[in-house]
């Protein structure tokens, strides 16, 4: 065993992911993770956990596109086949639905990615020094 593995403590993944989805600090679950719509705080306001190590980058956007596409495409197909609405009505409903779902999911998925990195001690989250 090396000194690095001795100093690392095990962090539970699923509780951290739930906290991240709620946009809360993955360590304490009380402090807000984001200071605006998508900007991650440098430190938690409650427990002072350093959150500056995150590297979310484009991950939340890719996951949002993946989820929204896989949810809305089958719904679009089913609604078109079953009810045959006018194209403009169909476009309007699904455009609003896609934008709304994307705006809802994006900060939550960013919180989950930051929480995942924290739980797995990636990108400096495991440094105790």
UniProtKB/TrEMBL annotation:
Keywords: Membrane, Transmembrane, Transmembrane helix. The chain crosses the membrane at residues 61-82, 88-106. Pfam families: DUF983. This is Uncharacterized conserved protein, DUF983 family.
